Amino acid sequence: MMESCLNTKAERRDQVVVEDLRRDLVSEFATLTYPQLSSADEQEHLKVYLRIRPFSAAESHNGESQDCVTIEPPDTALLKPPKLSLSARHSSDKSLPQTGQRFQFSQVYGPETPQRDFFQGTVKDLVRDVLEGGNSLVFTYGVTNAGKTFTFLGPDADAGILPRTLDVIFSSIGEQVFNGTSIKPQRCREFTRLNAEQQAEEAAFKIRFFRQFKENERSNASLQNSTNKSLFEGTSMMDTSEQRINLEVDTNTKFSVWVSFCEIYNENIHDLLEAAPSGAMKRMNLRLSQDIKGNSFVKDLRWVQVNTAEEAYKVLKLGKKNQSFSETRLNFLSSRSHSIFSIRILRIEDIGTPRVHTVSELCLCDLAGSERCAKTQNKGERLKEAGNINMSLLILGKCLNALRHNQQAKPPQHVPFRESKLTHYLQSFFCGRGKACMIVNINQCASMYDETLNVLKFSAVAQKVVVLSSRLPPIAPKRSGCEVSIIINTADRDRPGNRRSSLIGWDSSLEDVQEDEDDEEKIRA
Ligand SMILES: Nc1ncnc2c1ncn2[C@@H]1O[C@H](COP(=O)(O)OP(=O)(O)OP(=O)(O)O)[C@@H](O)[C@H]1O
Fold first, then answer.
1. pLDDT tens, residue by residue, 386-441
2. Ligand 1 in contact with 145 (CB < 6 A)?
3. Distance between CA atoms of 446 and 426, rounded to whole angstroms?
C-alpha cells in the first residue's frame, strides 16, 4: 500500500481539531451514506440485456435447433420447451411450462447482432458516465458455453465490450491523457501522490510487465496448440472504429487512466497481473477490504497506469493469460473463475500542482458460467471449481432476491452479500456506489432448455431490482476524503491557517479499513 506523506500517526493525531473533524464527517456522511438518499441520488432498475448466441455448425448438425427461443422485439424473449426435452416428456408435472414463457428485458439481442451494435446498445452509455465521473458495474451471467466471454472479450477480429470500452475511452480523451506519474488511485474513491522513488517503482513494474508481453508474442508464434493460440494471439489493439464521446472539458482538464485485473477462483482472489508462480508454488491470495463508506476493494491489488488503448489492451491480454481456464465437456475453453477488469479514471485539473476532481470506476466482470455437473461430467478439480462457481452465483441470486424483497415489503430481509467473495465485492454497486448492468447470455440449444429456463427466471428477478446510484459531486475543495490525499501530500501543507488538521483526521480514519477476518484466518492456515 502507498505510504501517506505524514510520517507518524502521532504526528497526525496531534493536529486534529475535533470540531473541524466533526463538521467534515457530518457533511461527508450526509451525502454518502445510503440508505438516506439525497436529492442527488438516482434510482433505476438494474438494466438487464439478453444476448442469444448463434448455433455452432455442430449444434445445428446434432438437431439442437428446435425453436426453443423466439424474440419478440425489442425486449421480450419467449422460451418454449423442445419436444424431446425432459421437461416436456414429464407432462404430468404441471409446474413445468408446456406452452412457453415470456421474459422481459431492457433489450433483447438476437444471434445475428454484431458486437458493435451490442456494445452501443448496452455499455457505451456507461463509458460516457465513467468519463463524466460516475461509477458503473457490468457483469455477464449465463450457463457455461452461452457466449459470455465472446461478448465480454471477443476474438481479436471481432472485439467484445471490453476492448471497445478501452477504445472509446482513449479516443474520447484524445490528447487530454494525463502523462504525469505522480498521482495514483487508492482504495475506492481516493488517490495518493507518489514520491520520486514510488514513481520509479511504478515505471520499473510497467517495463517488466510489458517485457512479458514481448516474450509471449515470441512464444505464441511457436505455439502448436490451437486452444492457447486462439486465446493469446492478437497482440495489437484492433480497430473497433467506435465513435468517440464528446467531452465538454477545457484544455487544462486531463484524464489519468488506471486498470487492474483480478479473478475470484475457488473463493480466493488472485491478481492476474502477477505472473502465475511455477511448480508447486501457490498464487498469493488477496483480501477484500472496505473503506469506511462501505465500498469494497481488493487490498494490494496492482493498478497500472495506461496511456493508450493499446497499453490497456496488453494488460488485458496478459491478465487473461494468467486466468484459470480449462477444457470442459461443454466448452473447450471454459473460464473457471470470475474475472474482474476495472478501469479507474482520475479527472485532473492540470495547472501548477495537479488537482484531482473526480475518481470514477467502470468495473467489468466476466462471471464463470453455472453448470450442471451431470452434464459436464466434471471430476476432481473441475468439480470443485464448478461447486464454487455455482455457489457464488447462487448467492448472487439470493442477494438480488433479497434486494428485490426489501424494495417491496417489510420487514427487510438480510442481504447475504458477505456469503461469497463475488457478492461481497459487488455489494457497493448495488447499494449506491453507481449504476449496474447485467448481460445475460443464453444459447438456444434444445439440450440446454432447463438451464436456460433457470437463467431467464433469475434474470426476471434481477430486472426488477432497483439500483441506487449516488451521483457524487466533484471533489469539493478541502472537504472530501479524496481531497485529503492532496492536502496531506502537498508541499505547502505546513502553511499556517489552513484547515488541514481536520482533514488529516479524516484520512487517518480511512486508514482504518476493515479486513475480512475469515480471509486472514484462511491465509494463516
Ligand atoms: N455472438 C456469438 N457469435 C458467434 N459465436 C459465438 C457468439 N457467442 C458465443 N460464440 C461462440 O460460442 C462458444 C462459447 O462461447 P464462450 O466461450 O464465450 O462461452 P462462455 O459463456 O464464456 O463459457 P464459459 O462460462 O464456460 O467460459 C465459443 O466458441 C464462442 O466463440
1. 565 577 788 888 898 888 888 887 888 899 999 889 999 988 888 877 888 999 99
2. yes
3. 33
Ligand 1 neighbour 53 (Cβ under 6 A): yes
| Amino acid at site 215 | E
Of 314, 293, 174, the closest CA to residue 232 belongs to 314
142 is in an annotated binding site: yes
Sign of the dihedral defined by the CA atoms of residues 435, 363, 323, 387, in that order: negative
DSSP 8-state secondary structure symbol assigned to residue 266: T
Ligand 1 nearest atom to the CA of residue 140, by list position: 21
C-alpha cell at 227: 486452444
- Residue 383: per-residue pLDDT: 55
Please state, as a whole number, how many other Cβ atoms lie within 10 Å of the Cβ of residue 79: 20
**Per the annotation, does 180 bind a ligand?**
no
439 CB near ligand 1 (under 6 Å):
no
9-475+482-524 adopts what CATH topology?
Answer: Kinesin (3.40.850)
Cα(152) to centroid(ligand 1), Å: 10
Partners of 298 in beta bridges: 288
pLDDT-flagged residues of the chain (< 50): 1-40, 88, 223-235, 330, 373, 376, 476-525
What residue ranges do the domains of the chain occupy?
Answer: 9-475+482-524
pLDDT tens, residue by residue, 10-56: 444 434 444 444 443 433 333 333 343 444 456 777 899 999 999 99
Interface confidence, given as ipTM, is 0.98
Q: What backbone torsions phi and psi does residue 264 show, to the nearest 5 degrees?
A: -110, 110
Q: Is the dihedral of CA 128, 131, 137, 141 positive or negative?
A: positive
| Residue 109 Cα to ligand 1 middle (Å) | 15
Task: For residue 358, report the distance from its CA to the centre of ligand 1, in Å.
Answer: 36
Q: Is 144 a pocket residue for ligand 1 (Cβ < 6 Å)? A: yes
Q: 87 C-alpha to center of ligand 1: Å?
A: 25
Reference 52, options 102, 118, 120, 111; nearest CA is 111
Integer CA distances (angstroms), 187 to 184, 358, 510, in order: 10, 14, 9
Testing ligand 1's pocket by substitution, the residue of 331, 332, 334 carrying the most ligand atoms inside 8 A of its CB is 331
Grid cell, residue 42, equals 438516482
Using DSSP, state whether 134 is helix, strand or coil: coil
Report CA dihedral (512, 515, 517, 520) to the nearest 10 degrees.
Answer: -120
State the pLDDT at residue 109.
Answer: 97
